[in-house]
Amino acid sequence: MSTEIHGHAVMDLMQASGRTFCRQSLVAYIEHHFGRHTRFCTCSCSDLTAEQLVDFFAARGKFKGTEDAFTLDPGHACHH
User: Fold this and answer.
1) Hey, is 40 helix, strand or coil?
2) Core-most of 13, 19, 33, 45, by most CB within 10 Å?
3) What is the separation, in whole angstroms, between the first and last Cα of the chain?
4) Within 13 Å, how many C-alpha atoms sit on residue 51's CB side?
């Protein structure tokens, strides 16, 4: 049985960390914090893996920086 966590929790975790990530390091960070088998949901999707969630965020412009060094873009984080 897996747990489903909202993507807002991941955005909060990223922001609190103050870290810069690449795709691989962010996926590893998420899996370390929430567990490898955890599934994630967003306001429009559910049952996402950490990799799928990172891809979802990237496709929606939630990050700023380069592909190899990005942070959460607080201006593009939803707050509802």
Assistant:
1) strand
2) 13
3) 28
4) 3
CATH code, 63: 1.10.10.10
Q: What is the model's pTM?
A: 0.90
Q: How far is CA 12 from CA 1, 6, 20, 79, in A?
A: 25, 10, 14, 10
Asked if residues 20 and 69 have their Cβ atoms less than 8 Å apart, the reply is yes
Question: In this predicted structure, what is the pLDDT of residue 74?
Answer: 79
> Angle 67-57-18 (CA atoms, 0-180°, nearest 5)?
65
Confidence class for position 23, pLDDT limits 50, 70, 90: very high
37 and 31 Cβ atoms separated by less than 8 Å: no
- pLDDT of 80 > 70? The answer is no
